[in-house]
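Tutorial handout. Part one gives the primary structure; part two gives the three-dimensional structure as tokens.
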Amino acid sequence: MPQGHVVRVSKLDLGSILSQQNPHIDLRLEAYETSTRNFLTAVSNYTQRAVTEITNRKNNYATNKKKIAEKTKQIENETNACKVKEIELMAVLEKEQEERKEAEASVSAFRRQLASIKEKCASLDAEIEQHRAILQNLQRERERERSLLNKHAARTSPELAECARRTQCAIEGIDKDKILIRFTHVDKTDLNREFSFVLDVSSRDYKVPTTSPFLPTLPILLEELNETRDVYSFIKQVRQAFEQLVTTGR
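Part two.
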């Protein structure tokens, strides 16, 4: 039997209605009556279908019962498999718990080591501060000595310049523990020609890494210097050696 048409009433938008200047709700009574008739028709149809449905369900009961039995068996098999899996997971869990205990023990040992290292670091920090204080004192002492040396140099610079002018010999530091000694007025034909050598005083044995020009007798003079430790006599002897070199080369 054909079913009656069911009229569906759209949902009321209360907010939209209330926002109107003259709110009005259409109750749609005609649609309601039509819906009621359709409902009664549907109830009648439902009764007829219910009888048919009961018959169909009775016929399908045996089939569904068999399917349920098969499904129950399948679930039991799956349950047994899950139990086996659970046992395996429990074993894995116990192993992880043991590993966790070992890890916690290792962490505790590392923490103790860290605490010991922190104590050592604190001790080293205190020692560093002590050495820093000593270094600062030494730096202040060096600055004081440098200031005294600068004052002394300021007083002696004019004398040194006059001495260099008269002796035609200039002495200056060029690198760490290295002194450059320059002579002029050695060559009578060219008084401005410069003769020089570098004296390395970085070790107990003096060294001369370079001379200009080359001085053949330098090894002998240097050996004598390391025996006598008389630098001033060495400088004088080197100048004389340059003079002899110029005279011989003419």
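Part three, for discussion. Residues 221 and 237 are 7 Å apart (CA to CA). Helices lie at 14-18, 29-167, 218-228, 231-249.
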